[in-house]
User: Fold this.
Amino acid sequence: MINLKNNKGIIFGATGFIGRQVALEMSKRKVKLVLHGKTKKKLEELYDEIQNQYNIKQILLPGDFKKKSFFDTLLSLVSSRFSELDFLMHFAGNFERLSPLTNFSHSEWDAMVEININSYWRVLKELEPLLKKSRKPKVIFTINENSSNGLPYQNIFSLSSATKKNLGSIFFQENKKLKIEMIIANIPFLNNGQTSIIKSKKKELRDDIALRIIEKAFKDKKNETAIINL
Assistant:
């Protein structure tokens, strides 16, 4: 098991399907975390679970990605706790439904774009200064690579998977000298959306994915952007 004790990082979407289990596993390994979630209630439930299981206090960061004011204070809030970030993980997503592209209302589309696409750029923009201060910083996103090829009726999920692949590649290329490693984790069963899961899938599958994300993403690698298949 990779030793990550006292690493510092932030997990966006920490109360979601995969983010929650990654947060628990990281806490088990004594990683110092800022945990983001949309609602304070779900974050507090996660906080209590971490405290009860691993006796470690993590930092909670409630915030709605649809509100740009959240990003205005993001850097100052995180930097008040951590002088650097060893990693940034983003697991948040909102996939409303299978539907033709033009069957959404303007407000529905705007909300999905803010959460599934814009938030990924915004967190990089705001927290890049803290990543640059780490010796071996990592940025970790998740996608479904099959969906990134543009599957019909998967609308924003297909678009966001493709965007995250390209966003990661661009960010890495522009920051090569800074040695910020970009990891794109391809999760095949995420074909129904980032935070939803086929009902027949068991908890063990989620736990296994969380472990594999951590073990594969934090193995020593060359300075590169990479898609890891889980």
Remarks:
- The first strand starts at residue 8 and ends at 12.
